[in-house]
């Protein structure tokens, strides 16, 4: 099965059935680029590929330019290690394939991020349960609106 259709001399990417996709496959929907990380029974686990912005999350894995070039991604992108389950590849267009070494790093980063989230969720309820009550520590008088004078200038 070919990855691309040749239409009037131009190669066009096309959708793929989910059985043909391997881990590390890069595809895009109308608004988001995705990379296939794993299969969970019939569902597919994807991670979004984000454009380079100033905001950096701990779950972000920078995509090296060589891998981006090989996979057909724009340069300067990163992968957010946030799993998204999809039932099928409907609406996705295959763009390329990431290398095996980088895919292993991606899976390792995803499992590390999920482990961090599990630890945060495990300790958050206990921390809140053992925290001292803050009731009555600060009392504010009820809010009363200021009288407005038609002669006064109010800027707020």
How would you characterize the overall build of this protein?
This protein has 156 residues and is α+β, with helices and mostly antiparallel strands. It has one domain (4-127): SH3 type barrels. It has helices at 65-71, 100-130; strands spanning 4-7, 10-13, 25-28, 33-40, 43-50, 60-62, 78-80, 84-86, 93-97. The strands form two sheets. Strands 3, 4, 5, 6, 7, 8 and 9 form a seven-stranded antiparallel β-sheet that branches. A hairpin with a 2-residue loop joins strand 1 and strand 2. The longest helix has 31 residues, at 100-130. The termini are far apart.
Provide the fold topology.
Layout: E1 4-7, E2 10-13, E3 25-28, E4 33-40, E5 43-50, E6 60-62, H1 65-71, E7 78-80, E8 84-86, E9 93-97, H2 100-130
Antiparallel strand pairs: 1-2, 3-4, 3-9, 4-5, 5-7, 5-8, 6-7
Instruction: Specify the number of helices.
Output: 2
Biggest sheet: strands, sense, closure? 7 strands, antiparallel
Q: What spatial form do the alpha-carbon principal axes imply? A: globular
Rounded mean pLDDT is: 75
Helix percent reads: 10-25%
Rg measurement, Å: 25 Å
Oligomer: single chain
Question: What letter string, H or E per element, gives the SSE order?
Answer: EEEEEEHEEEH
**Spans of at least 5 consecutive residues with low confidence:** 1-12, 133-140, 152-156
Any idea how many domains?
A: 1
What's the total number of strands?
9
Q: Strand-residue fraction? A: 25-35%
Distance between the termini: 66 Å
Structural class: alpha+beta
What would CATH call the class? Mainly Beta
Which CATH architecture is right?
A: Roll
């Amino acid at each position: 099965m070919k990855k691309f259709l040749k239409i009037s001399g131009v190669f066009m990417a096309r959708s793929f059935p989910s059985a043909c996709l391997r881990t590390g496959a890069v595809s895009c929907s109308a608004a988001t680029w995705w990379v296939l990380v794993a299969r969970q029974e019939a569902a597919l686990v994807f991670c979004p590929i984000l454009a380079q912005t100033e905001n950096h999350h701990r779950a972000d894995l920078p995509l090296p330019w060589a891998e981006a070039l090989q996979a057909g991604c724009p340069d300067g992108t990163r992968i957010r290690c946030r799993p998204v389950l999809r039932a099928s590849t409907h609406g996705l267009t295959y763009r390329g394939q990431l290398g095996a070494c980088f895919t292993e790093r991606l899976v390792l980063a995803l499992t590390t991020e999920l482990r961090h989230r599990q630890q945060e969720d495990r300790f958050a309820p206990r921390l809140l349960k053992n925290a001292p009550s803050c009731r009555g520590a600060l009392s504010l008088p009820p809010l009363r609106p200021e009288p407005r004078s038609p002669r006064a200038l109010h800027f707020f």
